[in-house]
Amino acid sequence: MRRSAPSRLLLLCCAAGLSMAQSKPPPLGVQPAPGGPYPPPYAGPPASPQGAGGKPPPLGAAVPPQAPPGGGPGGGPGGRPGGGAPGGTPGGNYASVPGRKPPPLGQNEAPRYAGPPRPPPSIGTPPGPAPVGPGQTERLRPVSTGTGFVVAPGRIMTNHHVTNNCTEMRARTANGTELVGTVLNSDEERDLSLIAVQGTPGPPLVFRRGPEVRRGESVVTYGFPLAGLLSSGPTLTTGDVSALSGLGDNPNQIQISAPVQPGNSGGPLLDLAGHVVGVVVSKLNAQRIAQRTGDIPQNVNFAVRVEAALDFLRRNNVQPRLEDTPPGPASRSAAEVGDIAHPSTVFLRCMR
User: Fold this and answer.
1) Of 1, 104, 200, 313, which one is least surrounded by beta carbons within 10 A?
2) Could you report the per-residue pLDDT of 258-303, keeping only the tens digit for each?
3) C-alpha span between 231 and 260 (Å, rounded)
4) Domain hosting residue 154, numbered range
5) Does one domain contain both 149 and 183?
6) CA-wise closest residue to 172 among 343, 321, 352
7) Catalytic, out of 191, 275, 282, 344
8) In the predicted model, is pLDDT for residue 238 greater than 50?
């Protein structure tokens, strides 16, 4: 049967459509059947490790170990089932996708170097004396204070109870110089002590040779009472000779009315000529007397007599300066006597 030209053209189009329908590619994501008309989708060129002539993988991407030739999904000489890349990647080597974003530009991926590790802070020790090093002596501290006065070059007189049990004596002179002193001798009964110092503590004071001290005679004390509480400088007080013996008729002392306080001990007692007539030693314990008698004593203080002090010095090979005090009215005021005593009186500290 003969067909017309349009009919032949329609039959050819239908055959072509049937052929195209039979070779339709598989849906997206489905692997084509082996031997089909369509090749597998293009996966790009295999990644080449750096140094093999290709470009290095992107920044942050790990380069998987290269599988040996012939690796495939069926197991091979790669050392793992499948013979491909680690993790079971089928066939060939592929650059792994980075697991995290690379750091922003200008920020180091690795932590910055902060220098060598710092040592932990040392545990402080409570404040205290510095440690004693080799060849050094133990650090000493002041335990009490008193007064002394120069009796000869390099020699200072004070009370026995001022220097008793002291490891070392420190003498601060009128010009502020501090001298280290050593106790040469001490008399507990008379309560006198002699200190040797290196350097010049001041000019020696002059002792009164005569006449003997009388009751009612004006006297001056000069010393450092209550150090740290009162004035840091010396203090002057005035009074009179009240009695020619001490407590309990002690013949080595005289009683005076000039006020004295702790710290005056060992200071000079002077007449108005500026001569030493005694060594300040003690005051009556007013509290105890009040407990026994019910009355508070006033201005009852004591000093070692000048005769006892001179005898003590001579026994220790010290020859003090002696002068007579002229009889009659006072030749100097108390302030002038203080000017005489000042350069020769020292502040003493007992170090232990």
Assistant:
1) 1
2) 999 999 999 999 999 999 999 999 998 888 888 988 888 889 999 9
3) 14
4) 142-197
5) yes
6) 343
7) 191
8) yes
Among residues 153, 148, 152, the alpha carbon closest in space to that of 166 is found at 148
What CA–CA distance (Å, rounded) separates 321 from 151? 8
310 token code pair: 């001179």
Report helix, strand or coil for 158. strand
- How many Cα atoms within 13 Å fall on the side-chain side of residue 319? 0
Q: Is 4 a catalytic residue?
A: no
What gap in Å lies between CA 260 and CA 235, rounded to an integer?
Answer: 10
Asked if residue 308 is part of any domain, the answer here is yes
Same domain? 183 vs 210: no
Span 64-75, pLDDT tens digits: 555 444 444 444
Q: What is the DSSP string of 86-141?
A: TTTB-SS--PPPPSSPPPPTT--SSPPP--SPPPPPPPP--S-PPPP-TTPPPPP-
Angstrom distance (rounded) from CA 90 to CA 340: 115
The verdict on whether 240 is a catalytic residue reads no
H-assigned helices in 134-257: 160-163
Asked if 160 is an active-site residue, the reply is: no
DSSP string, 286-348: HHHHHHHHSS---S-EEEEEHHHHHHHHHHTT---EEEEPPSSS-SS-HHHHHHHHGGGEEEE
C-alpha closest to that of 253 among 338, 182, 122, 159: 159
Active-site position among 144, 186, 193, 265: 265
Which token pair is 97?
């996708």
Contact by Cβ (8 Å): 222, 265: no
For residues 211 and 284, state if they share a domain: yes
Quote the CA–CA distance of 158 and 170 in Å, as a whole number: 13
Is residue 162 assigned to a domain? Answer: yes
In-domain check, residue 110: no
Please name the residue that has the structure tokens 């890349």: 85
Tens of pLDDT along 310-343? Answer: 999 999 999 999 999 988 777 799 999 999 999 9
Catalytic residue among 144, 160, 161, 275: 161
Record the tokens describing residue 346, joined without a space: 């020292």
